[in-house]
Amino acid sequence: MSRIWRAELNDLDRLIAQLGREGFEVIGPRVEGQAISYGPIQRVADLPVGWTEEQSAGHYRLRRRNDQSVFGFTVGPQGWRRYLQLPKESLFSADRNHRGQWQVQETPTLAPKRALLGVRSCEWQAIKIQDRVFERPGSVDQPYQRRRESLFAIGVDCVTSAPTCFCTSLGGGPKVGEGVDLALTEVVNSHQHFFLIRAGTPQGEGLLTKLNLGVADAIQIKEGERRIEHTRTQVAGHWKVDVKRLREDLLANWNHRYWEELGNKCLACANCTLVCPTCFCSNTVEEVSLEGDRVERFRQWDSCFTADHGYLHGGQVRPDVKSRYRQWLTHKLATWQDQFGEVGCTGCGRCVVWCPVGIDLRQAVEALAQPEGEL
Amino acid sequence: MTRRRPRLAVWKFTSCDGCQLSLLDCEDELLTLDRHIDIAYFMEATSRAEPGPYDLSLVEGSISTPEQLEQIVRIRDQSRVVVAIGACATSGGLQALRNFADIDEMTRVVYASPAHIQTLSCSTPISQHIAVDFELQGCPISKTQLLEVLGAFLRGERPVLPTYSVCVECKLQGVLCLSVSQGRTCLGPITQAGCGALCPRYDRGCFGCYGPKELSQPRALGEFVKAQHKVSDRDWVRWLRSYQAGASEFAKESERHEKDR
After folding, report:
1. In this structure, how many other beta carbons lie within 10 angstroms of the beta carbon of residue A366?
2. Across residues A323-332, what is the average pLDDT?
C-alpha cells in the first residue's frame, strides 16, 4: 500500500497552485446561485467551505453546515461528464466555393489540460464506465480520448451522504476507487481540520513529492477510515439491490402494469438522462446557412426521452412516455450488463433528485419486481 | 443559371405583429433572403402588394372573426406551402383566453357599443381551418428557427427543429434547475425548446410561451407542483392560461381543474 500523507488547508492551496503552474485548469465544486456545481477554481476559498445540501426526490436545497468542511456535501446538479463528453461539439464544417466544390475542414478538438478536484467515488466510477463506452477497442471516440488523456483527477472520499445516495448497493463508494491520480479524505472536528492524501498514479505521486507533506500517523489514518466506514453504513441503508436479480426482474417484467403508471407520471423531459454521469447518447445536428453553401456538423447530447432518439428509418419505435421510460431504466440497469458487462448506474442519485416530478429509480425498480397483483 | 425566385407572402390575422417582426429582425440575412425569395406580399414591410399565387405563405395570428374564416381559405387556395408562425397561429394565442369565458358577457364589459363587434366565440389556430404544412411554435417565434424554416423551404428540405423540452436547453447550457433547487414553478419540462431557455437563464421559471412539447404531460407536472410546491389549483390554472392557453394539452389540463371545482 502506498503511503498516506497529511495535508493542512494551506497545503490544499499549494496543491491547487502547483497544478496551475503545471498548466492545468483546476475545476472544482463552488457555490453558484442556489447549488454547489463544478467550475474553475483558483484557491480553497473558492470551494464550498461550510456548505452542504439537502436532497430528496425532486428536491435540492443549499444549506449551511455548522463547521468549516470543504467537502461536506455530496454531489450537485451535474457531474464531470460535460468536461469529457461536451454538451455540444463541432465536428467539422464545409464550404462550397464558387465552382461548386465542397471544402471540408475538421474542427480542432478542444482538450485543455484539466484537473478535476473533488471527484466522488460514484463519479469516478462513472468516468470509468464512460471510458469503456468511448474507448472501446475498435471504436475509440478520439475527442473523448484526448480529453481523458489531458485529465488529472483528484478524488474525495465521502464522509457525508444524502438520502438519495446508493453507491454501495452497486459495488462502489464511499471511498474513491483505483486509478484516480490523488485521493483526499477530509477530517474535521472541534479541534482539528486536515486531509489525508494518497496517490493512485505515478503522476499523482510526482505531484505529492513537490508538496513536501508529512506522513500521516496511524491515529489520523484511523480517523479518516472511521468517517468513511460510518458513511458506508449510512449509504448501505439507503438501498440494497442484487445486480443480477435486478436484470432478471426488469427483463422478465417487460409488460408489467407499473410501466403504465410510470408512463403517466414521467414528463419525458430528459432531465434524468442529462444529469446522469454515465448516459452517453448524442445526436448529430447540422447548421446550414440560408443559401446552403456552408454547413457545420455538431454532436450534441441526446436522450432516449426525445422523439428523435426513437425515430428510426421512417418510424417512431418509442411513441409514448411509457416506452421511453422503460428504455431508460432497462438499459441503465439491465441490458447495459449485456452490452458492457456491468451496470450503467453508480448510485449517485442525480436522476432521483433532479427529476422535476421526483420519480425515484429505486422505487420504480422495487415496484416492478413485485407481482402485478400485489401492487 | 437563373431560376424564378419563389414568391413569399406574409399574412396577419388576430395577433400583435411580433412574429412578423421576427422576419424583419433578420437584419443580417434579409439581403441574402431577398436574393432567393421574392417578397410579394408583406404589409408590415411594404404597402406594395402583389397578387397570388404564392409559393410560401407565412401566417401569423389566430382566427377570431367571421371574415377571417373566409380569408384563410382564400390564402390556402393561393399558396403552395402554408406555415403557421407563432402562438396565435398555432394555438389561438393569448386571446384564446376567451375560449374559457362567455364572449357576449366579455364584449359587453369591454366595449361601449357591443353591437358593432363581430367576433367568434373562440380564438382558434390556423390548422383548425385549413391544412397547414408546418407549425412554428413560440411567442414570439425565434428568428433562428424562422431562418431554419425559410432555409429548409429554399433547399427543399424539412425543417430540423427540436420537439424536446426546455429542460434540455437548460442542461446543455448548465443552467441550474429552478424547480428542483428552489421549488419555483417552471413549465420547462412540458414546454417545447427553441427559446434557448431564456427565462431560466435569467432566473425565471419558464411560462410556456413555446407551447407544449411532443408528449407534453401537464397533468403529471401539475400533480407534483400542487403537492410539493404548494401551488394552488387557481394558480396552476393561471400558469397554464397565458400565451398558450388554447394549446390542446394545456387547455385540457386547465379545464380539468374547472370541472373538478
Report:
1. 14
2. 97
Q: What is the pLDDT of residues B29-70, one digit of tens each?
A: 999 999 999 999 999 999 999 998 999 999 999 999 999 999
Residue B160 domain flag: no
Give the range of the structural domain holding residue B102, as residue numbers without chain letter.
7-155
d(CA A62, CA B159): 42
Joined together, the cell numbers standing for residue A184 give 483526499
Tell me, yes or no, whether B33 and B136 share the same domain: yes
> Is B180 in contact with A60 (Cβ distance < 8 A)?
yes
Q: What are the residue boundaries of the structural domains of chain A, listed by start?
A: 4-85+111-236, 243-279+315-374
- Asked if residue B143 and residue B20 are part of one domain, the reply reads yes
Nearest chain A residue to B217, by CA: A267
Mean pLDDT of chain A: 96
* CA–CA separation, A225 and A220 (whole Å): 9
| B57 in a structural domain | yes
Instruction: Tell me if B217 and A268 make a contact (CB, 8 A cut-off).
Output: yes
Looking at the DSSP bridge assignments, the partners of residue A62 are A53
Q: B221 in contact with A at a CB cutoff of 8 Å?
A: yes
Instruction: Establish whether the linkage from the previous residue to B53 is cis, with ω within 30° of 0.
Output: yes
Chain A residue with the nearest C-alpha to that of B33:
A290
Best mutation target among A267, A295, A325 (most B Cβ atoms within 10 Å) is: A267
Residue A356 and residue B36: Cβ atoms within 8 Å? no
- Domain match, B216 and B92 both: no
Tally of domains within chain B? 2
- List, for chain B, all residue ranges whose pLDDT scores fall below the cut of 70: 1-2, 259-261
B179–chain A Cβ distance below 8 A for any pair: yes
Regarding whether B128 and B35 lie in a shared domain, the answer is yes
Taking CB atoms and an 8 Å limit, are B167 and A274 in contact across chains? yes
- For residue B149, tell me if it sits in a domain: yes
> Does residue B161 fall inside a structural domain?
no
- In this prediction, residue B258 carries a pLDDT of 82
Question: Do residues B206 and B200 make contact, with C-beta atoms less than 8 angstroms apart?
Answer: yes
Query: Are B11 and B95 contained in the same domain?
Result: yes
Query: Which chain A residues contact residue B180 at CB under 8 A?
Result: 58-60, 77, 353-356
Tell me chain A's radius of gyration from C-alpha atoms: 22
CA distance A190 to A252: 53
Q: Give yes or no: residues B29 and B69 share one domain.
A: yes
Of B155, B188, B208, the position where a domain reaches its end is B155
Q: List own/partner pairs for A45-54 with CB under 8 A and 24 or more apart.
A: A47/A71, A47/A117, A47/A118, A48/A72, A48/A73, A52/A160, A53/A162, A54/A162
